[in-house]
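Retry 2 of 3 after timeout on previous attempt. Resubmitting structure tokens to design endpoint.
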């Protein structure tokens, strides 16, 4: 027997008619975020459901025939199934009031379509095709888009092994375990051709053919298309392209990013999806820009210049990385063989194209972020603060543009409420807030109902979540080598770690060094005092994976484990292995405080704090990422001792001091201050403030509204207008750009006069006349704006000047600046082209000085 190979096939149990809706429910991710559907599947077989990672498809595949018969004969179950199924059908047919409203306004309805590209999607714990925050955001983006009825299509890769499972060995070191995904038991299906055969298509990588098989995940109403190269048809190297998420080998990574770009484009053709918006979530998918150039020029016969404008008008780029090193780039030598032919196909050499992806100070590198920025009219960072940091980082791409005016917006991340809100709170929301919160993203009147939930009910709901978290942690620890070995804690099946009546602090995120998981370890004695305090004890739970190549991150994990071992506090200073969505959900719903102490400004947004905050878990966080936009003094705590300190050692020390101080003097005392009924009433009022402010301001629907209003709709409208009437506007735009570019070199302001005496005292409120003399080099003055840029305090104002006359070859512009405030102030005059429709020309600006 040993040497005989068998072909494997799966047999799904047969379902009687009255259970058939289960099959449809199990094949949609909606089932994992809707509380009633989740309960229904739990009821089928609670033990199996938990063992199978709450994966509905797996239950359907593995359920016994006996159990099927029982359920089919249980009137109660069948009734519940009918109710859930009806809810599901209603959900699918709900148009989304939000979209209807906007379609009317902007009339972009018929062809409005968004294609969304991301390397990772965090949808559910049973689908390990995500590593961290970026993936969770993409997953939540699709779920929110489904709720709102946005016409969005997701594209990504289906990884055979995905991201690793984390095990901690007896030395406290992380070990990475990769499991081959068994797609048969997951809510994902192969795409079929019209004749029922499996869809397979090909693309060129270099000069070799790579075959791709597309799969699909139903995320509510949104299809997520994932590409797989693990096919016998492919040569060995290509077969492994989609093995691992964030593979470290540079060429493999390049191949992945070529597949997501060239593969998605080909797949869209197969599926006849013609998007009006292409949303690149991070630079990984930016090769798509080159593919679009190729197609627009070769298949649709646009000129290169026209194609550039069409792509520019319809591309959204979201950057997530506040440090230059974190951005995706490849050496030109590696990229060239793969791109050369593609570039030639649209009439450019690789050398010309690589200039568009070139970064200052990094010669020979092909930067995907730079390429994306150059070709996108709609660019954003993921919080207000992060957009400012991004402006700084990319300022060399916009040499003549002031920082404030750089076209990088801040659209702060959000999270999908139904996925992250604990079931007890869902119930309270349904009863006291009404279901409106699911659709009316930030409606004040809806969210204010949160304040009508009685304190005691909030607290009871929280305590239930906390108890459940603690029993969940104890169960998980039973599988942990270290805990079994060290403590023999679990011998009688008793849960022995953590006490629900003690304050519990959670810290879970990737173990990247900048997140400083070890900050709390700086002063072991002070930490031990907190842990062993006789009346105000504090407990900690940590979780998180370090990237397999990040030895520093792994060292941090080890330190935490060693500290607990050494000081015999393993029952209240805990590291939980294998951080994933399931563990995240339990933690953000069940701890009391969510600790976040990154080195500012390296946390671009952060979303785990949002999940915690809307569950009434109070944030204790450095004012980084999203937190400065939310923190109001009454809804959590801010760590700010490190602000503006450059010296890293000093900063760590100051922030650690502050952290101990707050825990000792504010947070623990407040937690243990109880009213006569035993409730911590001031704490609860902070919880309610947190639920209100985070729920209202940082939900996914608020975020999507901003993308729709600021990017998706204007972009769709813009590209539609460019194409109308035989591309009239497109031709005009290209001609305009050409005229401007040709003449621009010699355009200048030759003189600027302010009606102001040397050393004169200027009073606030005064209006000062200005005259600028400009040489327009033959350009029509209608095409240009001449203006004064005026800077006071940290603000600026623009005063536009009017053309009053010409003097020989010079054009005279005149106007006034109105003086605001006092102190040293600055101004300068500039000439720039007027925007054309939604198009600015940031590379064409001439300043006087
Ligand atoms: C939310 C989440 C993250 C992102 O959290 P950050 O605050 O950005 O660190 C990472 N991993 C998982 C599993 C999550 O649920």
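Retry 2 succeeded. Sequence:
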């Amino acid at each position: 027997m040993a040497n005989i190979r068998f072909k494997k096939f799966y047999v799904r149990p047969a379902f009687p008619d009255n259970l058939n809706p289960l099959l449809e429910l199990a094949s949609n991710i909606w089932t994992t975020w809707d509380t009633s559907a989740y309960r229904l599947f739990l009821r089928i077989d609670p033990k199996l459901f938990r063992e199978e990672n709450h994966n509905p498809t797996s239950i359907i595949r593995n359920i016994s025939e006996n159990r099927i018969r029982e359920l089919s004969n249980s009137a109660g179950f069948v009734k519940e199934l009918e109710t859930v199924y009806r809810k599901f059908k209603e959900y699918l047919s709900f148009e989304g009031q939000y979209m209807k409203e906007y379609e009317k306004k902007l009339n972009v309805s018929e062809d409005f379509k968004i294609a969304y590209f991301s390397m990772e999607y965090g949808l559910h714990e049973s689908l390990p095709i995500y590593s961290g925050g970026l993936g969770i955001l993409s997953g939540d983006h699709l779920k929110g888009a489904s709720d709102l009825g946005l016409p969005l299509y997701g594209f990504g890769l289906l990884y055979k092994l995905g991201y690793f499972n984390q095990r901690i060995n007896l030395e406290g070191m992380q070990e990475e375990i990769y499991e081959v995904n068994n797609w048969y038991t997951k809510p994902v299906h192969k795409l079929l051709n019209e004749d029922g055969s499996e869809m397979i298509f090909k693309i060129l990588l270099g000069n070799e053919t790579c075959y791709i098989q597309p799969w699909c995940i139903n995320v509510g109403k949104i299809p997520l298309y994932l590409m797989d190269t693990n096919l016998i048809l492919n040569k060995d190297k290509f077969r492994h392209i989609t093995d691992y998420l964030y593979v470290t080998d540079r060429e493999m990574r390049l191949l992945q990013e070529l597949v997501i770009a060239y593969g998605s484009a080909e797949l869209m053709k197969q599926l006849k999806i013609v998007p009006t918006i292409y949303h690149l979530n991070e630079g990984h998918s930016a090769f798509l820009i080159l593919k679009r150039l190729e197609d627009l020029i070769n298949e649709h016969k646009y000129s290169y210049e026209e194609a550039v404008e069409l792509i520019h008008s319809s591309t959204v780029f979201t950057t997530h990385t506040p440090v230059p090193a974190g951005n995706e780039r490849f050496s030109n030598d590696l990229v060239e063989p793969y791109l050369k032919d593609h570039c030639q196909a649209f009439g450019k050499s690789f050398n010309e194209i690589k200039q568009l992806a070139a970064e200052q100070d990094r010669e020979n590198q092909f930067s995907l972020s730079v390429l994306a920025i150059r070709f996108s009219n709609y660019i954003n960072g993921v919080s207000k603060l992060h957009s400012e940091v991004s402006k700084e980082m990319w300022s060399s791409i916009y040499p003549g543009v002031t920082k404030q005016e750089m076209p990088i917006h801040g659209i702060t991340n959000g999270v999908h409420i139904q996925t992250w809100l604990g079931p007890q709170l869902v119930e309270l929301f349904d009863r006291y807030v009404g279901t409106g919160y699911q659709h009316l993203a930030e409606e004040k009147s809806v969210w204010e109902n949160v304040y009508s939930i009685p304190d005691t009910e909030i607290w009871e709901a929280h305590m239930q979540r906390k108890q459940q978290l603690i029993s969940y942690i104890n169960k998980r620890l039973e599988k942990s080598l270290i805990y079994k070995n060290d403590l023999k804690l679990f011998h009688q099946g008793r849960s022995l770690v953590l006490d629900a009546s003690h304050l519990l602090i959670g810290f879970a995120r990737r173990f990247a060094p900048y997140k400083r998981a070890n900050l709390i370890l700086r002063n072991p004695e002070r930490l031990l005092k907190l842990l062993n305090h006789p009346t105000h004890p504090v407990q900690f739970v940590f979780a998180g994976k370090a990237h397999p190549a990040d030895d520093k991150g792994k060292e941090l994990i080890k330190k935490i484990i060693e500290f607990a071992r050494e000081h015999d506090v393993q029952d209240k200073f805990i590291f939980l292995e294998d951080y994933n969505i399931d563990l995240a959900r339990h933690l953000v719903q069940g701890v009391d405080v969510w600790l976040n102490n990154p080195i500012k400004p390296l946390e671009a947004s952060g979303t785990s704090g949002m999940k915690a905050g809307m569950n009434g878990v109070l944030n204790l966080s450095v004012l980084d990422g999203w937190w400065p936009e939310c923190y109001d003094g009454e809804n959590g705590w801010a760590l700010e001792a490190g602000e503006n300190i450059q010296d890293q050692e000093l900063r760590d020390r100051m922030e650690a001091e502050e952290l101990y101080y707050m825990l000792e003097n504010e947070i623990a005392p407040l937690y243990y201050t109880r009213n006569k009924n035993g409730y911590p009433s001031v704490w609860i009022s902070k919880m309610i403030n947190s639920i209100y402010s985070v729920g209202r301001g940082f939900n996914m629907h608020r975020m999507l509204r901003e993308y729709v209003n600021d990017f998706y709709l204007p972009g769709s409208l813009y590209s539609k207008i460019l194409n109308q009437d035989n591309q009239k506007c497109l031709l005009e735009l290209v001609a305009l750009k050409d005229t401007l570019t040709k003449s621009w070199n010699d355009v200048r302001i030759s003189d600027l006069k302010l009606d102001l005496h040397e050393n004169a005292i200027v009073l606030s409120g005064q209006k000062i006349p200005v005259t600028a003399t400009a040489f327009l080099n033959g350009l029509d003055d209608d095409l240009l704006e001449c203006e004064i840029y005026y800077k006071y305090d940290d603000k600026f104002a623009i005063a536009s000047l009017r053309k009053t006359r010409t003097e020989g070859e010079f054009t005279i512009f005149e106007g006034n600046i109105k003086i605001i405030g006092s102190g040293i102030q600055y101004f300068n005059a500039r000439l720039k082209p007027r925007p054309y429709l939604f198009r600015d020309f940031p590379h064409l600006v001439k300043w006087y000085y």
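Attempt log closed. Residues 132-133, 136, 509, 579-581, 584, 606-609, 611 surround pyridoxal-5'-phosphate (CB under 6 Å).
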